[in-house]
Amino acid sequence: MFVCKTNRIVIWVSIYLKENIDWADVIITTGGDGTFLMAACRIQDREKPIIGFNTDPTRSEGYLCLPKQYSVNVNEAIEKMFKASFWIE
Prior knowledge:
Helix content: 25-40%
């Protein structure tokens, strides 16, 4: 799980603690739909965004995660997020 707070990125692996989630501005998961759902069920604030990257886009769709193009090009997705120019239709 990636947690971003004011341009600082902190990386935790499978630590979905309430304090971490409350502290973060956005939750970014890496894995698949199951990982996305595991993190999402712990978020109490409906205004807190959650973004999922599919770590195996060649073998699974990841319907809750970002489209495959961003899972294979994570830098592009993160740049768009920081620039607030991220749109998925």
